[in-house]
Amino acid sequence: MTTRTMKAVIPAAGLGTRFLPATKAMPKEMLPVVDKPAIQYVVEEAVAAGIDDILMIIGRNKNALANHFDRVTELEDTLHRKGDLTKLERIMQSSAMADIHFVRQGDPRGLGHAVLRARKHVGGESFAVMLGDDLIDARDDLLTTMIEVSDRRQASVVALMEVDPESIHLYGCAAVQPTDDAGVVRITSLVEKPSAADAPSNLAVIGRYVLRPQIFDVLEKTPPGKGGEIQLTDALQVLAADEEIAGPVLGVVFAGRRYDTGDRLDYLKSTVTLALEREDLGPDFAAWLRTLAATL
């Protein structure tokens, strides 16, 4: 656990169009992964890394996010009267584990713009950015490692993961050089969603960042890029090209367990994987899956 105060920013203003019609009236971040909304896994990860001040960047029709992390006294009273203390503890956990704030993005102008909306809340300190589509297994200390590297090297740090070269067009991609730290690379350039032929590596940017506050000045000057949006990748490219602005941009190469909930098929795979690993669900669920597979 980190020993200093750091804030986290969770951009959650997207429309979730890949999950329509389920996300017509419900934020995609509230889609359940087993029995918790995806966004709660992300908040729990931040808290496990020692972060208890979290800002969510939301859009319209995202009130369910605030409601989930608020108390529901009627439900608490009902569970208490019934003596269902296990469920009572679980629902109270989501409202007590962190100090969560909300600000609207306003215009949907991309991830870089969403991060820029956090400037007043973050102030002049380094901060974490955590995307809700990427769930990192609680047994893997990715964010804690990134914070430690950022502090020690006075650097912005990006999480990287090796992917199939044929899938690199779905991600930001990093060109890197080795460092003296095992599992840590220096990022020399970043490309947003390149073709396999143009990609400088098979190291994809996944949804965890620890950023120095100078990123805000760069984002203010970053023009719209791919998709007509202000890309965080473009701002990081500026920092990587000139280390005098805010120190180096480093990458922590993650080889642990990551669950992608931003794609429908991967969302289903993530839900099944996490359910199988649960002590209360896994054995019976695995037996059922074997039976089902035998009939296919």
TrEMBL record:
GO terms for molecular function: nucleotidyltransferase activity. It comes from the Bacteria. It is an enzyme of class 2 (transferase). InterPro entries: GalU_uridylyltTrfase_bac/arc, NTP_transferase_dom, Nucleotide-diphossugar_trans. Its EC number is 2.7.7.9. Keywords: Nucleotidyltransferase, Transferase. It catalyses: alpha-D-glucose 1-phosphate + UTP + H(+) = UDP-alpha-D-glucose + diphosphate. Residues 7-269 form the Nucleotidyl transferase domain. SUPFAM superfamilies: Nucleotide-diphospho-sugar transferases. Belongs to the UDPGP type 2 family. PANTHER family: UTP--GLUCOSE-1-PHOSPHATE URIDYLYLTRANSFERASE (PTHR43197). This is UTP--glucose-1-phosphate uridylyltransferase. It comes from Microbacterium awajiense. The gene is galU_2.
